[in-house]
Amino acid sequence: MRVKKYIVLSSAVLLLFRGVLLSYPRECSIVGYVYDAVTGIGLPGVNLILEGTTQGASTDMDGAFNILHVQPGIYTLTASMIGYKEKSYKVETTEGKKVRVDFYLEETVVEMKGIEVVGERPMIEKDVTASQRIMDTQRLEALPVQDVRGALTTRAGVSGEGTDIHIRGGRASEILMIVDGIPVRDPLSGTAFGMYLPVSSVSEVEALTGGFNAEYGQAMSGVVDVKLREGGDNYHGDVTFSSTGPFWYSDETVMLQLGGPEYITKRLLPNIGFRIPGKVSFFSNLYLRFSDTYLPHTDSLYSSVFGTSALSPKEENTLSGVLKLTWSPGGKQKLALSFSRSIEINQGYFFSRGDYPFAYGFPYRYKNVLDNYLTFTRDGNQITLSYHNVPNLQTFYDIKFSRFFTNLHIDVAGKHWSEYDELLDIYPPGDSMVARGDEFWDIGDAPYWHDHYVETYTGKFDITKAISPVYNIKTGFLLQGSEIQWIDIHYPWFASPGGLGLNNDIYRAMSLDGGIYFQNQITFAGMIANLGMRVDFWIPGRYLEEGVKNALQKEDIPPIVECEYNDYINNTPTIPRTDYHFKPHLSPRVGISYPVTNRDKFFFSYGHFSQLPDRKFVYSKLGRRATSTYELVGNPNLDQIITVAYELGLEHLFGEYIKLVTTAYYKDVFNYPTAQKVPGIPPNPDFWMYFNSDYSRSLGIEVTFEKRLSRNWYADIEFTLSQSKGRTSTAEDIYWRGKEESLKEWYLKWDRPLKFFGSLGYMLKDGERLNIFGLAVPGDLDANLSVSLQSGRRYTPQDTIGNKGELNSGVGPYWSRVDVELKKGFRVFGLGFKLKLEGRNILGRRNVYYVNPVTGRDYRSGDPLPPYTEEKDMLNPARYREGRSVKIGLGLNF
């Protein structure tokens, strides 16, 4: 049935494209050579432009050029190069024909002043065959966000809050974040964002939300490609402090930034007669943010990872540092070394279930003993060495090596698990004889101790070569070796044979994974096709191999588990001459772009995308079992999760700086791991185990409007209409409910049918002035207004006697937010300063997070409630998201 649906949908898309292609004239091309008029030698690097259009080309090393996708008509073709006189010819192009034009340029003497070169992407990139959103430094700094994760949520097709980000209906773990070409994800817990990156440290964020090429693997919903900033030829720095002051909850941010030529190689070494060829530059960024949040909080937190409270004086504490060295030795080579690290210390108020499934969100039941609740310490760091080379005009390649480390540690006030005190809910306080009090904990420690880390070494190679003017290839590989460790202890005060509490899970393993891809870009009949193929593989390693073999020797292994283990041993391919098994997967990708005119482009993509399951779903409890009756056991035989996605879009350019993009998409996802109950062999209790048995589907329409900065104005509009359904929203949904509802598809928890984001900005550069009713406003000004609107959160309707509606069928009150940001530069005693004003949710909208399932809105005194629910249960302070806040900052620029 699924195959039939794909065939019908593919046929419909192809018929649609056939009609589109036949309705437009066939394009032609202009080819030729540019020679030196005296020597007759071909000139490389000559610029050719069709006047009145954005089309053109540059000559190669032999002086040849080829301008593709030219519509029939009469044009003026101009050739220009520094040191030569400009020359133009009239050219008439005919439908489907190739026109040849040769130029002979005469030398000339040119006096030149300093030139500032500003590179900018074209509004319509004709060779891009899928959806992408690119945010440069100017756009990132204009958004009402602090980090890359927040910037991503403003884009069409992306929803979420806290650490949960969903792209086109996918789960939060389906995103691949890449920093300077290397993945930074936590494969053990599934956290997509392995590090915190403030926007001040980033030069560009490229969000690929559908149909990405074969070079990207281990991602099903989207890819977030982040490029760190680099130093320039001149020194530049920035020191900024901002605060909410005494009027709102305490929230302070400090940012220090410095970049420019590297001092040792530029000054010190030349003084002793040692010169390094080329240029060496550096960029550094330090970002600190300390916030008490709008929720109840402790005075400070103690992190046992660092053995101090100095790094965590408030409830939410974030520290990030970036250092990047870049050496350009000459020619077209570049060597870069970057180091980035982030530390987050908090109590998990804005963590998701994906970060740690047993403790997340505001701990309402611990409101009386927040000091005894968990402290989360997340530490992530990456060091990357990369080499880029362009040996000729037809070829370039990249070589990268990296080490990435991420660690999540959770405990109570730095205690070892053996030091935990039992949780008690007593009423009245001090009456230990009452077993159940007011349902809020009064003494004792939160019952979890957790630590896990992932250390990954990566090697990556990519090469691109232009075989001909109409055929390019790109190929490469990625290889990753990982060491993982997981220690998880629940209710440690419970007596158990191993002294590790009621439930525990401990393992350490090493694995190898990677991918090889081949990508073709072919230009034909006015179209550009990206045809790719990718092979991903995973070698789980010795720990898993030995665990499976040992388990099969036990007599009390349940039949369903024995079947899974035998299937892994007998049907999973092995590496020749070894006992190691590996899991491969083949993913085809197809993308087509058809530039109809210089202002219009159709694109279509179809692809298979795969991703390995979170490693905790595989390795958990493989070597040991606890005494708990709610054990979750991993499955070594889990296969890759698969997405099959289709996308169709249209881009239209209204002017030089204004673009509208409309996109429709459809996705099928299957092989999701899901916890299912397994009957134990008596006297052993039942337990839960992960199986590939879940699925989901998403479809939607996205509309984006972009106006780049011109005439002082810039704007962005992002609109999404979507639907996401599946059997479960997480791998543990059935585990928490205790039963399967049915095989029916339900709305997923994060489904938001409507989403809108709009941003309007006005910028005056230094030296410009604005007259308002005769009043002159000096330049160096940037003002921005952002408006976001989206459907409310999903909930399951329920009446006062306990009758429930369909799962997640209700939609709570809509969310809205208006943010403003104003930056004004000025100079005092020759120093540059910048005043910054940030207003968040300035209308004070109370966006409802927890919905009363009886009324479908926030709880208000006297409202009817579900059975066994009291008013106190509905008064969680986290039932609303953040209210109004204003932050004022002052920066020194030099």
How would you classify the helix and strand content by structural class? mainly beta
Share of residues in helices:
under 10%
Average pLDDT confidence is: 89
Q: Please report the distance between the alpha carbons of the first and last residues.
A: 64 Å
What is the H level of CATH, i.e. the homologous superfamily of the domain at 2-105?
Answer: Carboxypeptidase-like, regulatory domain
The rounded Rg comes to 30 Å
- Give the CATH level 1 class of the domain at 2-105: Mainly Beta
Beta-strand residue fraction: over 45%
The CATH level-2 architecture of the domain at 2-105 is identified as Sandwich
Q: What descriptive keywords fit this protein?
A:
five-stranded mixed beta sheet, 894 residues, 8 helices, mainly beta
Write the layout of secondary structure elements.
Layout: H1 2-22, E1 28-36, E2 47-50, E3 56-58, E4 64-70, E5 73-81, E6 84-93, E7 98-100, E8 103-105, E9 132-136, H2 137-142, H3 148-152, E10 158-161, E11 164-167, E12 175-179, E13 182-183, E14 202-208, E15 222-228, E16 236-243, E17 251-261, H4 263-271, E18 279-291, E19 316-328, E20 333-346, E21 375-392, E22 395-411, E23 448-468, E24 471-490, E25 503-524, E26 527-539, H5 542-552, H6 559-571, E27 583-597, E28 600-611, H7 616-619, E29 632-633, E30 641-653, E31 658-678, E32 687-710, E33 713-726, H8 733-737, E34 746-747, E35 754-764, E36 769-772, E37 775-778, E38 781-790, E39 794-795, E40 810-811, E41 815-828, E42 831-840, E43 885-893
Parallel strand pairs: 1-7, 1-8, 12-15, 29-32
Antiparallel strand pairs: 1-4, 2-3, 2-5, 5-6, 9-14, 10-11, 12-13, 14-15, 16-17, 16-43, 17-18, 18-19, 19-20, 20-21, 21-22, 22-23, 23-24, 24-25, 25-26, 26-27, 27-28, 28-30, 30-31, 31-32, 32-33, 33-34, 33-35, 35-38, 36-37, 38-41, 39-40, 41-42, 42-43
